[in-house]
């Protein structure tokens, strides 16, 4: 299925981002079916990978998702508000740990958030806050065990010997870790992490449900799905199996307006520092999209490399450096009159998915998604139940 085609830009918008919520819901259902009988959650951090928490979380909940993961408590509050507004259930875990100086326990309780605990200090603070709060309906916790990422989480041996009573007092209901290189099935670290996670759970941690697999982890031959999987990138249309056909539906489309067209002679330069030179008399289109709108400057059209846009399905390479608000495309090869000021060109859509654009920008699709600009007019399709 082709990516959703974005509509023509509105009169007061210079770029339009289309988000297909039905495709988002269908992607969640595909991953849930593949992970079954494990539960399928959803990572909605970074504003649902740039698509918008307020729209994405209810759509995923309508598709059947009941467990969500955010990075910060403030994101969790937005996710909870979105669920409440739609009268939908869901538990929300805050991945970056419990830091009462940023978000006190009372905020977690008030907004129905659960903490992912990754250090002895966090565990003690969370346990003590629960004890002081008392009563029913207290937030619970997930215990984060580090199996090789060396970012957050308890070291393996420390986690194995945590007293069961401390974990119960802290309300631990889940033990989790994070894969380092799941997108590469041949990477030996996958097997090492899976074994390390199993080893960590041999003692007291065996009493709790477990979660290890991210988007790509769901597709590993070892199937480390345990009790709960936590996909993120694949939900939003990114390929969890690089080098193989993408099993996910595309979710985003992006078009931007052409502001001007101009003829330049051979040898004329374009863009900052004059780093692109016209190899022949050329027609250039100035487009209302730049790095302030989420297009990495690494996509600049220099030395035969860089991003491209599509006009009527025909690829047009960028010419010169991407500016803050603008970019330039070489459209010399288009038929005369095929493109005019006011028309739109495609950045993401039927001809280019997020992984393809990222490759041309020298980055990863994650960065493209999370930096989708706030200046775009956002157009949402569906509600998560279709496709």
From TrEMBL:
InterPro entries tied to this protein: Ala_racemase, Ala_racemase/Decarboxylase_C, Ala_racemase_C, Ala_racemase_N, Ala_racemase_pyridoxalP-BS, PLP-binding_barrel
Residues that bear N6-(pyridoxal phosphate)lysine: 45
Top-rank taxon: Bacteria
One annotated GO molecular function: alanine racemase activity
Q: Which CDD domains match?
A: PLPDE_III_AR
Gene Ontology terms: cellular component: cytosol
Family from the record: Belongs to the alanine racemase family.
Protein name (record) = Alanine racemase
* Species, as recorded: Lichenibacterium ramalinae
**High-level lineage:** Bacteria, Pseudomonadati, Pseudomonadota, Alphaproteobacteria, Hyphomicrobiales
């Amino acid at each position: 299925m082709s990516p959703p085609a974005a509509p023509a830009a509105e009169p007061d918008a210079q770029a339009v981002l289309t988000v297909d919520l039905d495709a988002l819901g269908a992607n969640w259902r595909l991953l849930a079916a593949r992970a079954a009988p494990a539960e399928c959650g959803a990572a909605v951090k970074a504003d649902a990978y740039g698509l918008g928490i307020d729209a994405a979380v209810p759509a995923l909940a309508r598709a059947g998702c009941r467990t969500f993961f955010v990075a910060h408590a403030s994101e969790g509050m937005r996710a909870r508000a979105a669920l409440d507004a739609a009268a939908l259930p869901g538990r929300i875990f805050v991945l970056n740990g419990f830091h009462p100086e940023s978000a006190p326990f009372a905020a977690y309780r008030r907004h129905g958030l659960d903490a992912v605990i990754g250090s002895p200090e966090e565990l003690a603070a969370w346990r003590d806050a629960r004890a002081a709060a008392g009563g029913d309906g207290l937030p619970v916790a997930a215990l984060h065990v580090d199996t090789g990422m060396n970012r957050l989480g308890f070291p393996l041996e420390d986690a194995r010997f945590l007293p069961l009573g401390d974990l119960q007092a802290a309300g631990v209901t889940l033990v989790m870790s994070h894969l380092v290189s799941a997108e590469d099935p041949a990477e030996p670290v996958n097997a090492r992490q899976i074994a390390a996670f199993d080893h960590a759970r041999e003692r007291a941690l065996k009493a709790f449900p477990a979660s290890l697999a991210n988007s790509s982890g769901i597709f590993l031959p070892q199937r480390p799905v345990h009790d709960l999987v936590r996909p993120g990138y694949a939900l939003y249309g990114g390929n969890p199996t690089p080098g193989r056909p993408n099993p996910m539906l595309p979710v985003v489309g992006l078009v931007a307006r052409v502001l001007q067209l101009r003829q330049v002679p051979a040898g004329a330069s374009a863009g900052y520092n004059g780093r692109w030179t016209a190899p022949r008399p050329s027609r250039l289109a100035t487009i209302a999209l730049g790095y302030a709108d989420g297009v990495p400057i690494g996509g600049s059209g220099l030395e035969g490399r860089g991003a491209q846009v599509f006009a009527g399905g025909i690829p047009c390479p960028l010419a010169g450096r991407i500016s803050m608000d603008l970019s330039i495309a070489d459209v010399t090869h288009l038929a005369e009159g095929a493109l005019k000021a006011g028309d739109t060109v495609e950045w993401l859509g039927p001809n280019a998915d997020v992984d393809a654009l990222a490759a041309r920008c020298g980055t990863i699709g994650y960065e493209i998604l999370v930096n989708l600009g706030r200046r775009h007019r956002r157009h949402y399709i569906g509600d998560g139940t279709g496709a």
